[in-house]
Amino acid sequence: MLHEFLATNRAEIIARTREKVAARPAPRATDEELESGIPLFLDQLIDNLRLSRLSSEAMDVSATIHGGDLLRRGFTVAQVVHDYGGVCQAVTELADETKASITADEFHTFNRCLDDAIAQAVTEFTRAREQSIADAGVERSGALVHELRNALGAAMLSFQTLKSGSVGLGGSTAALLGRSLSRLSSLIDSSMAEVRLEAGIQAPERVSMREFVEEIEVGASMEAIARNLTLAVTPVNRGIDVVADRQLLAAAVANLLQNAFKFTRPKGSVSLNTSSTKDRVLIEVEDQCGGLPPGAANDIFRPFSQRSANRTGLGLGLSISRKSVEAIGGEIRVRDLPGVGCVFTIDLPIALAGS
Predict the structure, then answer these.
(1) Is pTM beyond 0.70 here?
(2) Are 177 and 158 in contact (CB under 8 A)?
(3) In whole angstroms, what is the distance from residue 343 CA to residue 52 CA?
(4) Which of 126, 166, 235, 247 has a Cα-to-Cα distance from 42 of 20 to 30 A?
(5) Topology annotation, domain 204-349
């Protein structure tokens, strides 16, 4: 029986499916998908196959529950469809190789379970995703207004105090004004980047990394001084270019730097390094945050993620960085330096000569 075949050969089917998913060019497989997702997809199919003997309604309920579970685990619709398909291919291949005594009717039932599982899971996934987007939109708008009001209020109070002449331009009040204006600028830039991402608007151009980093360094240096931190920027050689939307790339790097400034210990150091290989450009932002908490690397790029007791900000900066980098064809990752800090790396394809 097919149900028994799946249960008996579960380990082999999972191993084969992982190979197929890992080799998939897009959407690129994640560690969570390979480690936990593949067994989950297979178990869901086995569950649906078992329930199909009872009633189609029971199977539909199961698939709907599975769809919500997939959303909570962070899987995309593309991953749902491709991974169910990967399981199906692995099962078919193994059954053919082992000459398993599975009837045509059982395979027909299996394919129907697969089809219904995908349809129901994606339906529930889409419904829950739309609801979460709507809820997040309201929450995000309120949080953004709150952050803008706080930064603007601090800037206005600082300006009024400076205007009265009771304090000097080199004191803490002026520094507060500078930080508040910088915060306003960062919030606006991030919001503009997010609007462009959601609208799918891009203006790719050839970007000189030497000039780009010099521009980023100007604003970042002011922020570092205001926070009593040291910013070290490695000069970039001429001729290292990328093709990207300059605004999205700038938003990604600026958010990484803002994050580094926010979590680096007092009087600590933040570094911005840019290097290249034959076909890649790497932009690295290293901080001295003390290292990441256990498991934080898996969730750090999720929206509204806050990784310390410092809850200022929207918790969207790293999420926007990831979306921006992926939108321009790159990757972003984080490397933990236990007890010291962490390194965020933006990995982009280098622009070919004449492109």
Answers:
(1) no
(2) yes
(3) 49
(4) 126
(5) Heat Shock Protein 90 (3.30.565)
